[in-house]
Amino acid sequence: MAAYFEPDATLSLSELAAYDTCCQKAIFKTMKQEEKDSLKQRCGGSWKLVLMYLLIGEKNYHRGKSQVVAGPGHTIAVTSKGDVYSFGANSSGQLGLGDTEEQCEPCLIRSLQGIGITQAAVSSRRTMLVGLLGRVRFRRQAWAWMHDKPDGPKDDRAFAGTERKTGIDFSGRFPLCSPVAGLGSVKARYVSAGYCSTFVVAENGDVYSFGCHLSHNLGFQAAGVGDAGERIPKLATQIAALDEKAVQISATNTLDWAGDSYVPDHSHTFVLTESGRLYSLGAGSKGQLGVKLAEGQKTRPAPDRVAIDLA
Questions:
Q1: Distance between CA atoms of 221 and 30, rounded to whole angstroms?
Q2: I need a labelling partner for 149 at 20 to 30 A (CA). Which of 58, 98, 172, 207 fits?
C-alpha cells in the first residue's frame, strides 16, 4: 500500500520505510506528531531504532502475564513464568497429563515446562496453547491436545476425528501435548479454540484456520460442495484480503445456545484488527454477526466490517 508521505530529502529510503512501518502500528497511530518526534529522539534519532523499540514491545506484550481460562468442564491456568496447570474433566485427555482421569486439584503439565506458554484457549474437551520456543530468539508455536468421543457422530466428517479441530492428522485420544501440524515455520501470536474450529493468528497478522466450515466461518473458500471440514491449518485468504493485520480472533465455542444439542452450522467468527476495526463472518441468522443479513441469507462467507470502532 502507498504511504503518500510528503517528500523529505533528509530521510533515506530505509528510514522512510521504517517510519512507514511505525505508522502502521496501533500505538503509533494514537500519538501526536510532537510525541512521535520526541520518541524518535529518545531512541537515538532514527526511525529504524523507533521501529525496533516498538517491535520489542510487541514481542514482550504477552510475556510475564499470568492467566486462567475456564472451559465447559476443565480449566487451564498459566503462570507468569509460562508454566501450565490444569484440572477438571479429562475424558478426552484435555488436561494434557497423559491420562484421562479427572483432577480436582491443579496439576502441573510437566511436558510443557521450559517451553514458556504465553496464551491458552479452551473449548469442549480441547486445549490450545501458544508458547515461546528458545531463550534467545523467541519462536512461537501453537500446541494442542484433545479428541472427540470415538463413538461420536459418523455422518459429519468435521467431528469424526481429532485432526479436524486440532490440526493433527490421526485418530484416537491424544492426552499429551503435541505441535499442531501444518503450521511449519509460522510464528503464532494468538490462538482461538472454537467448538468445532480453531484459529491461529501469526505475528505478521496472517490467520490460519481449520475444523468445521459448514457455516463458512473459517475465512477461506470451501474445497468443494459437501466438504465439511479442513484437517490441516490453512491460510484464511478471505481474511487476508482485508489487507489489515489481525491481532485477535474469537470463534464460537458452544452450539447449545441454538436449541439443538449438535448443530455445527451455527458457528461464526469475529476478527479484530490492529487498527481497531471489527469484522465478522459465518452464520448470522440470529443476528450474531452484528450486521443484518439479506432476507433468506443465513451465512456470510467473507468477513464484513461491524459498525463499531474498538480503537
A1: 35
A2: 207
C-alpha cell at 301: 462467507
Query: DSSP characters for 106-164?
Result: EEE-GGGTTT-EEEEEEETTEEEEEEEE-SSS-EEEEEEEE---TTS-SS-GGGSSTHH
Span 102-116, mean pLDDT? 90
- CATH class held by domain 117-309: mainly beta
The structural domains of the chain, with segments of one domain joined by +, span 13-59, 117-309
| d(C-alpha 109, C-alpha 247), whole Å | 27
Could you tell me if 130 and 140 are in contact, meaning their C-beta atoms sit under 8 angstroms apart?
A: yes
3-state DSSP assignment of residue 27: helix
Question: Cell triple for residue 245?
Answer: 493485520
User: Would you state the cell numbers that stand for residue 288, as one nine-digit string?
Assistant: 450474531
Q: Mean pLDDT in the chain?
A: 79
Burial classification of residue 74, based on how many CB atoms lie within 10 Å of its CB (0-12 exposed, 13-18 middle, 19 or more buried): buried
